[in-house]
Amino acid sequence: MNPQNYQEQILNSTIQMDASINFMANGDINIYPCPWENEKQVTDGSRVRYRAGVEVDADGRTRVKRYNVGKKGPRHETLYETAHGAVKITRPQYRLKADGYHKEGPRRRMDEEFVYVTFKFPKKYGLALTKALYQEEADEIMSYFKTRKEETIWK
Asked: pTM value?
């Protein structure tokens, strides 16, 4: 095996501890070693953080953060779909001033909203068929844009 592929050992060794596990109402999990396990060191003396939201202290206290699924909702909203294409728009962004106050309420940030048009054609179609299908679907999407001209804000 190639030694360059090895990652640095984060924990000292495999350690077994008696612990109490607390499941929090917000979804977090906290693990506390029992008092008689005080002499054991889990890390090299510093706190270790993993990408999965897990924190391990030197004395073995461990916290597992919940994963926020769908906290802000979907990033894009699908406006229109064709057989091989889709028109998506980012959700409206609203911001307050730095002092947190607007006389007329939060302002819509048009510079943070975008329209995306994506096409996905299988490679087995070949170049000629892909170009023909692209032209048909692009015309269909452009006609959709023309019908929405009155209700969509364009820059």
From this structure: 0.47
